[in-house]
Each structure stands twice: as C-alpha cells, then as structure tokens.
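User: I'm writing a short methods note and want a consistent example. For methylated-DNA--[protein]-cysteine S-methyltransferase, I'll paste the sequence; you return only the structure tokens, no commentary, since I'll be parsing the reply automatically.
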Amino acid sequence: MLYSEKYTSPLGTITLLGDAQYLYGLWFDGQKHFGAHYDLAQSQTGRPAPIQQALAWLDQYFAGHNPDASKLPLKPEVTAFRKQVLQVLRTVPYGTKITYKDISDALQTMDSHPKNLARAVGGAVGHNPISIIIPCHRVVGSDGALTGYAGGLAKKIALLKLETR
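Assistant:
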C-alpha cells in the first residue's frame, strides 16, 4: 500500500510518497512531473517509517543542517540509465555544485556509455522523482549558469543559498 504525506517547507508544500519499506517520491506541489506515474489519489494518508525518516531529514535540512541521506530507504522507480544518474547525484556533497558534463563523465567511468550524454543526463536530472534528498538542484550548466529545475528556478536558487549559509 502506498502512503502520501504533506510537508510544509519554507519553499512551499512538499508531497512525499512511500510504503512500509521505501520512499518513492518527494515533489514540490505543482512542480513538473509531480507524482510521476503514480496515482496519488489512490494513496492513503500516513507515515510509515520511510516517510517518517524523510520528514525528519527535511526538518534538519530546512533548519540549515547537512543531514545524512545515505541511510534513507530510497527507491526511485526510473530506468536503469536514470538510476545511474541519480546515483551520481547522491554523491554530490552538500553546498557544492556539479555540471551535466561532470555527471556524463562520471557515467563513462562507471560503464561503457557513449561520449556526449549531456542531453540524456539533463532528462534524467529533470525527472528525478525524489527532489532535494537526491540533490538535482545542485546541477548547473558547464558555464556555472543556473539552469532549469522541475520545482522552479526560484526554488533551486533558494535551496542552493540554504546550503551555503
């Protein structure tokens, strides 16, 4: 059974989706790809352990701390390639940024991927179903420019500022 829970953050309402074992989604209300392929209307309101852990993580994060996400039971339901991209994103330290090219380069060392993956990486980053915890907001263009964020560029800027204070 899937459960959903709302979280009120300084940047707006966030919806979390999980079951008794895993967290499957975390989205700002109204963001692109909100709810991905889930029927959120069919989920039950509740706080199984993965959602409770994510809520505690969010409390710490928005309080300006660097909570450890490695112990959270995350299960993004995406393609194998997108899982690899999200794996790379999970290694990006708090308060730092990474470029799409850096992610592409990291993937090439992990596997025999073709060279220019920037577009495919961009698609994977843009469809990250577990925002903030899997830090897609830390991805910038090769020139350092802040590029799109499914939750909106203003939220991306606010998240990056939160991590540098």
